[in-house]
Amino acid sequence: MEKILNARLLATIVWAIVLSIGVLYMLGKLDMDARQWVTWAVFTLISLLASVLAFDKKTTK
């Protein structure tokens, strides 16, 4: 059961990354400079971490 949850969590993270890159592509933002890329990466990581923690709390109850 735990392996299924880990696989689902990994799939969710990969999907979120692909989706956010797709949104950037649609907005034409793939030609950002380094500082904007770092800001975007930090924001994405914080969002993923928050969703992982929420997912963890929901599944452990």
Shape: elongated
Please tell me the total number of domains: 1
Biggest sheet statistics: none
Instruction: Output the helix-strand order.
Output: HH
Proportion of beta-strand residues: under 5%
Mean pLDDT: 76
**What is the tally of beta strands?**
0
* Portion of residues within helices: over 70%
Contiguous uncertain segments of 5+ residues:
none
Structural class by sheet pairing and helices: mainly alpha
Rg (CA only): 14 Å
Total DSSP helices: 2
Distance between the termini: 15 Å
Could you explain how this protein is built, in words?
The protein is mainly α and 61 residues long. The protein has one domain (2-60). The chain is built from two helices and no strands. Helix 1 packs antiparallel against helix 2 (34-60). The longest helix is centred in the C-terminal third of the chain and has 27 residues, at 34-60. The relative contact order is 0.12.
What does the secondary structure layout of this molecule look like, with pairings?
Layout (H helix, E strand, L loop, with lengths): L1 H25 L7 H27 L1
Helix pairs in contact: 1-2
Features:
mainly alpha; elongated; 61 residues
Task: State the gist of this model.
The chain is mainly alpha-helical.
